[in-house]
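pinned: reference chain
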Amino acid sequence: MGQSDWVQITKDKDMPVEAIRAHFTGHAYDPHWHDSWLVGVTEQGVQQFHSRRQKHQSRPGTVFLLEPGELHDGDAIDELGFTYRMLYIDPAFMRQQLSTLFGHVPDRFELNFAHTLSGDRQLAYATFNAFQSLYDRELKMVKEGNMQTLFAALTQHQHWRKSIVLPHQEKTLALQARDYLHDHLHEDIGLSDMAAALGVDRFRLSRQFQAQFGLPPHAWLIQLRLTHARRLLSLGVTPAVVAAQLGFADQSHLGRWFRRVYQLTPARYQQGCTNLPD
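pinned: its structure tokens
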């Protein structure tokens, strides 16, 4: 993180939503993903990032929309950098709120963002106001009202896409590998261990996994551990315990990866989420 870069974070106590405001110059963050829905608006500068195998540039007033698990990075295009406001919304909460607004949820369909960027001014204002009420820790009714307005604005940018349900025996190798990583999240596993368990060559396994998810298995496993780390830290679990529980070598190892991906130390993230003293 550069000397002029900064990150501010608030985790709401009434709703499963995080509000983050940040400013970056130069390279902001490497490709990574979150287990939340991301709804943000660029406040200043040009925010450049790759997602859905395309390069995007979000300018002031532009809303950017990312789904859980969607790989993305971030860079500034000049020395002025960029500033943005972002809401991280829990998937179950998002689905419950939007399902109510849609009135009818199609069977075996998944909720998706229609586009990554939007110039919808109503959505931009709704995002800005929802963020501000959470960040300022407004009255519960104010926060809920602004979030309700945001969800209503989001209905114009959502679509239902039929989910692909495959029989277990027809699962692709990449999906089997992902399941294996989930099942062995806390263990010090090797690529050779996973390949042996799935009965395939490890080079073929790596190629298919990266083609499917955009990251090699080891990088995807780190991201998975970090999403769990965020959740545990927000609950007040100490960084040392989090590191031990999630298979990191030690607290410093967790800290290096956490700063690299989120531009925050685990302790600073936890303070923003729980209002714990340093």
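why pinned: The longest strand covers residues 37-45. The two ends are 20 Å apart (CA to CA).
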